[in-house]
Predict the structure.
Amino acid sequence: MKLRCLLSLSLALLLPLASFSASFSLDSQGEAGDSVKWMRVDDGSLRNLQKLERKLHHHLNEIDTNYIEPQRYDFTVMLQSITTYELYRLKTTDGKSITFAPTPLVKMGPYFGWRWIFFGYTIDVKHMFLKQEKSSRKEYDVSIYSSRLGIDLFYRETGNDYKIRRMSVGEGINTHELRGLPFSGLTSTIKGFNIYYIFNYRHFSYPAAFSQSTIQRRSAGSPMLGIGYTRHTLSVDWQALDQLVKERLGADNSQFLIDEDLLFGTINYSDISLSGGYGYNYVPAKNLLLAASLSLGLSYKRTTSDSQRKRLSFRDFSFNNVNLDGIGRFAFVWNTSRWYAGASAVFHAYNYHKDRFSTNNIFGSMNVYIGYNFGRKKK
C-alpha cells in the first residue's frame, strides 16, 4: 500500500507536466469502480483545456534554449544498475559509539519510458547470481524533476542484513573481532518527502543531470530553497548487543552501552526542515555534463517517545531539538540526445541529538545507466 501511495502521488504531481490529462475515480470502499461514466465535452471546451495545459506545461518547464536543449524524442529504453547504501551511528555523551551498516544492495534491470512515464523491472543481483541470502529491506524512492521544482518521495525499512562496522567502548579495548558481525537487533523506518525550488531554472537544469530529459549545453548554476518532512522510527535490542559483545570480548566489557538512559525500546520522531543550497552544472565538452549540488537544512525534531518516556510538542519548542541535515547530489552524464549514459548519486544525512544519546543516519543510492531515445516528437 505504501508503494501504491507514493506512486499515486507522483503521478498526480506529474500529470500537469504531461501532454495529456487523465482521471481515475474510486468508489466508496476505495476500490476501482465497476462502471465508467462518460462526459461529453464540446470542441471549444476541449481546446480551452488543451490551451491551459500547454500554458501550465510551459510555465513549469520554461527554459532558455541557449543553455538547455529540450528532449526531442517520445520513447526511451534503458538498462540501469541501482546500488543503495545505509549507515546508522549511535553515540553516547561519554564517547562510546557503534556504527551499523548493511551490505550495499545492488539491483539491475531494463526500463522503458514514454515521455514522463517509466516502467522497469530490477532483480537483486547478489541474490540471483551470487546465491546470497535475499535482503528483506524495503526501499521505495520516487524523484520528480521539472525546470522549476524538484520532489523526492521515499520510504525505507531495514532488513535482516545489518552488520557492525565500527565500535568504540573506551581506551585499551580492542573491538576488531566485532567488525563485520551480523546484527539483527536494529530495526528502523524512514519515510518522507523533500520539495525544492530552483531559482535559475531557465539556465540550470536538474532534469539534464538526473533524468536525462533535457541536455545542458552551457555551464550554469542556481541557488535552491526547499522544505522537507520525514518520520523516523528506530529500535535497538541492547540485550542482544550486550550478549554479542560478551561472547566476543568477554564479560568484563559487555555492559558498555547498557544503562537506563539507553533502554528506550523504540524511539519515534518527526523531522521538519527548511533547507537552502546551490547546484552547478558544468559542461566541459559537447554532450558531457558534471553536476553537483548540496543543500543544508535546519530541522526541528518532534519526539513522541524517548528515553525519558516524555512527549514533546511544538509548544515545548527548544533550540536543543534543532539539528543540521543535508542532501548531496552528484552526476556525470554523456548525452547526444539519441544515446545517453552516465552515473548519479544522491545521499541524505539526518542527525538526532538528546542529552545523553545521539544518532546519525546516512542513506543514498547510486545509479549507473545506458539508454537510447527514439520516436522523434512531432513539432
